[in-house]
Write a structure and sequence with these properties.
The complex is a heterodimer of chains A (596) and B (111). Chain A has 596 residues and is mainly α. Chain A is built from 28 helices and 8 strands. In chain A, strands 2-1-3-4 form a 4-stranded parallel sheet. Chain B has one domain. Classes of the chains: A mainly alpha (596), B mainly alpha (111). The structure holds iron/sulfur cluster (4 copies). One iron/sulfur cluster (SF4) binds next to helix 15 of chain A.
């Protein structure tokens, strides 16, 4: 039997269209991947990574475990839609295969209750399960409705503003399940094949309408249901719902160690189209909640980039603080994507740029340990003086890379998108480090730290932040810190915390000097000081507004001193602080226990 | 014409009437705070690039505002975007944005 009725046409056409578009998109992206990435995929496919990826797909794409962690109600909403629908398809498939036999066409599975041939007497376990699942999905739809109306109820202050194609897809999606309920109820009124929900409604329909009317409405309902499915499938690859399928290859590719880089590549597409526009990244953004800027957050940035409408002002207006990246349930590399879109729009070949650095060497001193202050530390001499005292107290011979002026590390250029130019500066600095034969490079600036670690490939030189270095000195017994009984609070710099994963070292040092009181937002959740070099748009008053909001949160701890570990954060916080703001090196240098 | 013994060195003559102000005006429209510059020179004094070469940020942005773009693009290319100037500017001018804008606007004026 071929189980055919005209109403299946929209569904069949829509489904075929959707899969054709998806295969075409993915195929093109994969084809355009750089050779190294393709090799990584080939290596990865036959490794344990594939199994890990499958596990992750179940946890994240179906169960949405990460969203559950952020917010259980929101998690249930996503899970009931994704996992519920998946189970409806899976269980429906099994039921149709049992009743209609294997090898029946796809639409007969999807519209099974219409084509059902079994004689139903008594309780049908399949119908019961299917109704339960439908109820679960409907509850998700109801929650989604509710979220649109009142996002706060689901713990989100703001929900995403959607584009037209998203609205089409969304409307279709919302209609699919209520229409399914209606269609299956009518089928049940005729065939008595429903469960507690559709069967109950079916009996009600059978009892109140006469059979000719039921026949007509039945056919109408199935037509509408098929149309709703078709509209969703046609709109889907062009709307945010592309994420449903794209998240799956993304998880695999990520397990095969593919990453976005400072220059665009086709892998970026998998990340961009895996964004569900859930809007979780909106609320934490300080540009949103302090400055009321509401068109630059990652969700809008990815959307604009996907539809080719990215404006420089949107790409440039981001602190790259990483707060949204740490929250994103899909794990999209938001900072890197932001960076490479800047690279694309402003990078110039830079053939002779910074040639003036050739031969410039203002370094001094001798030692295996090199100290790179960085531009920002040179602007905060107290940090430099403190480091001098610490090195001296520990008896360390130091090579001072830039105490008397020197080059920038290159990260500010990179953050602004001038990656080619940044590489030229980096090459010069590398030559300098190699020339002086250091084995350890200490820096006080987390911005420099990050670029030394990630972009310099300094073979044979260990790069560490001064917090790590000082703590090592203490552990090695070369330095000791006097306890003062003072109260300190600590501000995690973005580039040091989320950026480089250094959270505990500064805290351990502070606890040696006194008591540490944590501010409301700390570690992975820490706020940005507002002066980030990555933002090229906001003006001075806006920077200081963000800064003072952070400062007041730190002051609310009641601590006598605000400690941080970045010269730029220090400057930003000190602007509006009514208590002392000090770098961790100052705290240590001031409380050195004199060797007896 | 009587000669008074004064002359103007041709290369230093500035004729504001013949300058093309379109890029300069665009710069000031997008970064109006630049008009509040008091030419204090703090930016130049602290400049990382200026410390190593003869690059002078105050001079470059002042010339650009006057519509004199000669060499401005090449000069701006010396900047490392380190951001020190922004931190010391008493008028809180977004100097890094000024650098970027000048580079973007004057791309056509190269050579
Ligand atoms: S970027 Fe991540 S958090 Fe933001 S909307 Fe997309 S999926 Fe959600
Ligand atoms: S990185 Fe920070 S500033 Fe940029 S969008 Fe995310 S939260 Fe906002
Ligand atoms: S520091 Fe600011 S006010 Fe002073 S010259 Fe530079 S831009 Fe102008
Ligand atoms: S950003 Fe450019 S102009 Fe400003 S101090 Fe740094 S190198 Fe000099």
């Amino acid at each position: 039997m071929n189980y055919y009725d005209h109403f299946v046409i929209p569904f069949v056409v829509g489904t075929a269209f959707m899969f054709a578009v998806i295969v075409w998109k993915w195929g093109r992206w994969l084809w355009k991947l750089p050779v190294a990435d393709k090799k990584a995929i080939v290596r990865g496919v036959f490794s344990l990574d594939t199994l890990r990826a499958i596990r992750e797909v179940v946890y994240e794409s179906l169960l949405h475990r990460k969203i559950f962690r952020v917010n259980p109600v929101l998690g249930y909403m996503h899970m009931s839609l994704a996992f519920g629908w998946f189970l409806l398809i899976a269980v429906g498939w099994i039921e149709a295969s049992v009743v209609l036999g294997t090898g029946t066409p796809l639409h007969a599975h999807v519209f099974f209750r219409y084509f059902d041939t079994a004689q139903h007497t008594g309780w049908n376990p399949f119908a019961f399960i299917m109704d339960l699942l439908l109820l679960m999905v409907l509850s998700g739809v109801a929650l989604a409705w509710f979220k649109r109306m009142r996002s706060r109820a689901l713990g989100m202050k703001r929900t995403t503003k959607h584009v037209f194609i998203d609205r089409v897809a969304l409307t279709a999606l919302w209609l699919i399940f209520p229409l399914r309920l209606v269609s299956e109820s009518f089928a049940a009124a005729i065939k008595h094949n429903g469960g507690f929900l559709t069967g109950g409604l079916g009996s009600l329909i059978a009892a109140t309408m006469d059979s000719a009317v039921i026949e007509t409405l039945n056919s109408l309902a199935w037509w509408l249901y098929s149309f709703a499915l078709a509209s969703f499938f046609v709109a889907m690859p062009f709307s945010r719902y592309m994420h449903i399928f794209t998240e799956v290859p993304l998880i695999f590719l990520r397990r095969y160690r593919l990453h976005s880089t400072a220059r665009e590549k086709s892998f970026d597409n998998f990340q961009i189209q895996a964004c569900s526009r859930c809007g979780i990244c909106i609320d934490p953004c300080q540009l949103q909640n302090v400055l009321n800027i509401n068109n630059v957050q990652s969700v809008y940035f990815l959307r604009d980039r996907r539809y080719g409408k990215l404006d420089e002002k949107v790409a440039d207006n981001c602190l790259m603080c990483g707060l949204c990246e740490s929250r994103c349930p899909v794990g999209i590399e938001l900072n890197t994507l932001r960076l490479n879109s800047r690279q694309k729009s402003i990078d110039t070949p830079a053939l002779t740029r910074y040639d003036y650095l050739q031969g410039i060497d203002r370094s001094s001193g001798n030692g295996k340990v090199g100290y790179f202050a960085g531009c920002m530390t040179l602007l905060t001499p107290t940090v430099l003086r403190s480091m001098e005292r610490i090195f001296e107290a520990a008896g360390e011979g130091v090579w001072w890379a830039d105490r008397d002026g020197g080059s920038c590390c290159g990260r500010p250029l990179k953050l602004s998108g001038e990656v080619n130019a940044a590489e030229r500066i980096m090459a010069r600095n590398k030559e300098l480090f190699a020339k002086h034969g250091i084995t350890t490079l200490v820096t006080s600036c987390p911005i420099c730290l990050k670029v030394f670690r990630e972009d310099y490939n300094l073979e044979g030189i260990e790069v560490i932040h001064h917090t790590e270095y000082i703590l090592r000195l203490v552990h090695a017994g070369r330095l000791s810190v006097e306890a003062t009984g003072q109260e300190f609070t600590y501000h995690d710099p973005c580039e040091l915390g989320r950026g480089s994963g250094i959270y505990e070292e500064p805290r351990e040092l502070i606890r040696m000097a006194g008591r540490l009181v944590e501010p409301e937002h700390n570690r992975r959740e820490a706020l940005c000081c507002g002066s980030s070099l990555a933002n090229l748009v906001i003006d001075d008053s806006q920077q200081s507004k963000i800064g003072s909001a952070v400062t007041s949160e730190l002051e609310a701890t009641g601590a006598a001193t605000i400690v941080t570990a970045c010269p730029l954060c220090k400057k930003a916080l000190a602007r509006d602080a009514s208590v002392r703001v000090a770098d961790i090196s100052q705290v240590v240098a001031e409380n050195l226990r004199v060797a007896s | 014409m009587p000669q008074f013994g004064f002359s103007i060195s041709q290369p230093r003559a500035v004729n504001l009437d013949t300058n093309d102000f379109v890029p300069a005006e665009k710069l000031l429209r997008e970064l109006p705070e630049l008009q509040s510059c008091i030419a204090c020179g703090s930016c130049t004094a602290t400049c990382t690039a200026g410390n190593l070469t003869s690059f002078n940020f105050r001079k470059v942005h002042t010339l650009v505002r006057r519509g004199e773009y000669r060499e401005a693009y090449e000069q701006m290319d010396k900047c490392m975007l380190c951001g020190k100037c922004r931190l010391v500017c008493p008028r809180g001018i977004n100097t890094r944005a000024v650098v970027m804008k000048i580079k973007r606007e004057l791309g056509d004026y190269q050579r």
